[in-house]
Design goal:
Blueprint: E1 24-29, E2 33-35, E3 40-43, E4 49-51, E5 60-62, E6 66-68, E7 73-78, E8 81-83, H1 96-104, E9 108-110
Parallel strand pairs: 8-9
Antiparallel strand pairs: 1-7, 2-6, 3-4, 3-5, 5-7
Length: 111
């Protein structure tokens, strides 16, 4: 019997770090790039998710890879949970501690 619950298979990797509840949200990633599971995302002025550019703006971690090279695409991102920092993509941001602090305020914990 289908109870309206959708399950998806998660790739075998070390992104998930613990048992803290992982909640997800739907969003739209901006066209022009490929996004990879574990990318840390921020939201631009148009409300679309983009690769992290500013440490303080870190907001989500991408659940599944998305190819948005030709157009904006829907995606799913973690908005809470525990993750291994070395499995996350910080893009070009070098202020890792600032990213960790920004995500911590949103109940995303990097180990």
């Amino acid at each position: 019997m289908n109870m309206g619950i959708k399950t998806v298979e998660s790739p075998v990797d070390n992104l998930i770090a613990g048992d803290f509840m992982r909640l997800t949200t739907g969003l739209t990633v901006l066209a022009g790039k490929k996004y990879v599971r574990g990318d840390i995302l921020e939201i631009n002025a148009d409300g679309k998710a983009i690769h992290l550019a500013t440490a303080a703006n870190a907001k989500y971690i991408l659940v599944e890879s998305v190819d948005a090279t030709s157009e904006d695409k829907p995606a799913i991102a973690y908005k809470t949970g525990e993750f291994h920092a070395d499995e996350c993509n910080f893009n070009t941001v070098t202020e890792v501690e600032e990213v960790i602090d920004a995500l911590h305020l949103k109940s995303i914990f990097l180990k």
